[in-house]
Amino acid sequence: MITRLRTEINVKNYKYFLTLAIILFILFSAFTLKDKVTTIFLIGDSTVADYSLENDYDTKRYPLVGWGQMFQPFFAKDSLKQIKILGKAKAVKVDDRAKGGRSTRTFFQEGRWTAVYQSLKKGDVVMIQFGHNDGAVNKPERYVDIQGYKEFLRLFINQTRQKGATPILLTPVARNYPWKDGKLSNVHGEYPQAVKEVAQELNVKLIDLNELSMQHFSKVGQEYISNKYFMNLPAGKYNAYPNGQKDNTHFQAEGGKAVAQLVFNAMKGL
């Protein structure tokens, strides 16, 4: 009878420890899945930035958007398998660190890159799009010449790889000028080519957003994108711009979404 009692106790202990092991396994799996969330960091300038993160966005900035502000909805669970560069990511979080008025140099000098670097983990992605402010010769506080531009791009790439993350370079998105014979032309000088050269030199994935956006904007047409894509606003329509505005660099929601779609489609081909 004593032997039988010991057996029953051992069986009960076994069931107890088995149940405990199952619970621990479930908890461990949950944390493991949570860890598989891939973060896509966006670094760049005003054309990429998320203005909804600012205070009083609705009254002070709306309808201004950067394409990064419109990017998260593209990463629905059933779309992730279309993007091989994300590996086996179970979920994606877009972390938009872009900031208006920043060049590669000022983004670094202000500690914005350091903050991204400290947050990076293995498997993350860093998408890098600068050029609008680097090329601003008339604004020396922002300006970076071609050689300096390349050096900062190399820095972002190499330090991203140090963390086991994946860099993706983007040429700067087009502005709404210059137009000729119904087609939009490059306004960024040598900067898009510099991005391509660094991508080739360091074997980095490249999205030629300058070319993609020029083609798309040309197809849609100057009149439509001027009124619907870019921040050319009539007086009295928006609280933040009571006198209206003429702006052929920054986007309204439709333009930001269109550019985000171009970037997402290009990622599927990487």
Walk me through what this model shows.
By secondary structure, the protein is of the alpha/beta class. Helices cover 43% and strands 11% of the residues. It has helices spanning 2-35, 57-60, 104-109, 112-119, 146-162, 191-202, 209-220, 222-228, 253-268, and strands at residues 37-44, 91-96, 125-129, 166-170, 179-180, 183-184, 205-207. Strand 3, helix 5 and strand 4 (166-170) form a beta-alpha-beta unit. Helix 5 (146-162) runs parallel beside helix 6 (191-202).
Short structural summary:
By secondary structure, the protein is of the alpha/beta class. The chain is built from 9 helices and 7 strands; from the N terminus they run H-E-H-E-H-H-E-H-E-E-E-H-E-H-H-H. The N and C termini lie far apart (70 Å).
Task: Classify the secondary structure makeup into a structural class.
Answer: alpha/beta
**Fraction of helical residues:** 40-55%
CATH H-level superfamily of the largest domain: SGNH hydrolase
The averaged pLDDT comes out at 91
CATH class of the largest domain: Alpha Beta
CATH domain topology of the largest domain: Rossmann fold
Strand order of the largest sheet: 2-1-3-4-7
Structurally, how many domains make up the residues? 2
Q: Which shape, going by the Cα principal axes?
A: globular
Stretches where pLDDT is under 50 for at least 5 consecutive residues are 24-33
- How many β strands by DSSP? 7
Helical stretch tally: 9
Q: Could you tell me the radius of gyration in angstroms?
A: 24 Å
Give the biggest beta sheet: 5 strands, parallel
- Which percent range describes the beta-strand content? 5-15%
Identify the CATH architecture of the largest domain.
3-Layer(aba) Sandwich
Order of helices and strands: HEHEHHEHEEEHEHHH
Ends apart, CA distance between termini: 70 Å
